[in-house]
Every structure is written in C-alpha cells, then in structure tokens.
Amino acid sequence: MASASATYASFQDRAQGFINGLGDKYEPYVRTHLAKVYMVLGAATASTAVGALLQLWGFINLGLLAALASLGLVLGLHFYRDDGKNYYTRFSMLMAFGFCSGQTLGPLMQYIISINPSIIITALTGTVVTFVSLSLGALLAERGKYLFLGGLLVSVINTMAILSLFNMFFQSYFVQLVSSIRAFIINLI
Q1: How would residue 124 be classed by pLDDT, with cut points 50, 70 and 90?
Q2: Residue ranges of the domains in the chain?
Q3: pTM to 2 decimals?
C-alpha cells in the first residue's frame, strides 16, 4: 500500500511541475527547435505525398520493394544515432522513408478515390494546415501555456475554416456534421 501512495505522490509532483512549467517562458532556441521539428515533419509529409502521387499516376511503382525499403529506413533511423555530424544523412533517410511510405499508400488511395476523391484533398489540407499552425505557434509563442493552448486552438480553427471553404465546393455531409457539432460545443461554452 505504501508503494501505491508513493506512486500517487510522484504523479502529483510531476503533474504539478507540468502545470507550473506552462507559465515559464521558452528560450528562443527552444522555440526555434520546435519550429524545425514541425518543418521536418511537414517535409516528410510532402515526401510521402510525392511518393503516393507518383504511384497513383503510374510513374514509379515500387510495390513490395517500397514496403521493405520503408522497414529498412525506419530501422536505419533508429540504429544510426544522431552524433551532430550526420544530420543530412538522417534527414535524407527520413525523406526516403516518407517517399516509400507514400508508395505503399498508393493502392489505398486508389480505393479511396473510387469512393470519394474529396476525402484525400480534405485529409491533405487538414495535415498541411495543422503543421503550418503548429510551426507558427512554436515560432511566436513566448510562454508554454500559449504554445500548448494556442497550437491546438489555431490548428482546429484553421482546419475547420479550410474544411468549410472546401465544403462550399464539394458539399460533404461529414464536414457539415462536424461543423454543426463544433458550433454546438462552442455555444455550450
């Protein structure tokens, strides 16, 4: 029983430290690092999109080789640790992993296109808006609480705005339903 109360006290200390840390100011190098992380994730997403589009259009179709290369590249990223000098090698491995992952997503995207092509545009737009919003939040936030709260709020608001704009042209029932639920929740608050 004593270990359970010690674990609970440890959890309380960590939770209180997290809450207290939200008000701390982030140093400029921390904000720059966060922005770089989101930009690298955005570049990996773009690499994945290029791989998927090339597979969809039939220019490059690596098939099983892409899946095996994805596995090899992700293991390479795990075992080839960062030593400060191999940044570009690891970045290239990440971009290649994104490309090969896109190649393996091609058949799934062909199936989705046969159902409703606007699903892909909606997913891509939401991803891009989220990455851009979080990167801007990391660059502009001076305090931790605004980074966590602002990043989330800006991502949701931007995604909903873009989805509403696309909904004017594509008339998606799902987007209308999500917008209605969002409006209901906001009116409750």
Answers
A1: confident
A2: 26-115, 117-189
A3: 0.62
